[in-house]
Design goal:
Layout: E1 2-4, H1 22-35, E2 39-42, H2 45-57, E3 69-73, H3 92-104, H4 108-112, H5 116-121, H6 127-132, E4 141-148, E5 155-161
Parallel strand pairs: 1-3, 2-3
Antiparallel strand pairs: 1-5, 4-5
Length: about 170
């Protein structure tokens, strides 16, 4: 299982002569390639676009059935600085600290309990993390390949090994 951010700058249509997210892009592509060929995506609409682009760039496409690795597309708050898309919100750093610690632990219970109302106020796209949190139960290894907040938005690229093989069930 891996997580990448739904950063629009990763899409080809936002490319420029100089890549403003070169380090982030490299970490995302490495994580997506690490997943292998059968990948199921857990993401918002924007995250689904980013996932499709990254998967295509490594030569695979998302699957909808059968055994698969999971790619979660999510990010922390977009309110970490005055120039951030959501402008500065003093709650952003604390929210992201809890989210980051829960991702790296990993702590499925803490991830499942993330406050989605606060996330919305902080422009954090964490619903996919909450949806996929149970998949992290049993994960034993965490590699955080990227942890930074360029442009005032908190992004992580993380990979987990040892998570039990299971699928997401629809909510009751």
């Amino acid at each position: 299982m891996a997580m990448v951010p739904g950063c629009l700058a990763l899409l080809p249509e936002y490319a420029s002569l100089e890549d403003p997210v070169e380090e982030l892009r490299a970490a995302c592509l490495a994580a997506v390639a690490w997943l292998g060929e059968d990948v199921r995506v857990v993401a918002s609409a924007q995250g689904t676009r980013v996932a499709a682009s990254l998967l295509a760039e490594v030569g695979t496409a998302p699957v909808t059935s059968g055994e698969a690795a999971y790619l979660i597309v999510a990010n922390g708050s977009a309110c970490r600085s005055e120039k951030a898309p959501g402008h500065l919100d003093p709650r952003a750093a604390g929210y992201d600290e809890v989210l980051g610690a829960s991702l790296t632990a990993p702590d499925p219970d803490a991830l499942a309990g993330l406050d989605l109302q606060t996330a919305e106020e902080l422009w954090a796209d964490v619903a996919p993390v909450v949806e996929a949190s149970e998949l992290l139960r049993g994960a034993t290894t965490v590699a955080v390949d990227y942890d930074d907040d360029p442009y005032g938005v908190r992004y992580w690229v993380a990979r987990w090994d040892g998570a039990a093989s299971r699928s997401l069930s629809p909510a009751p």
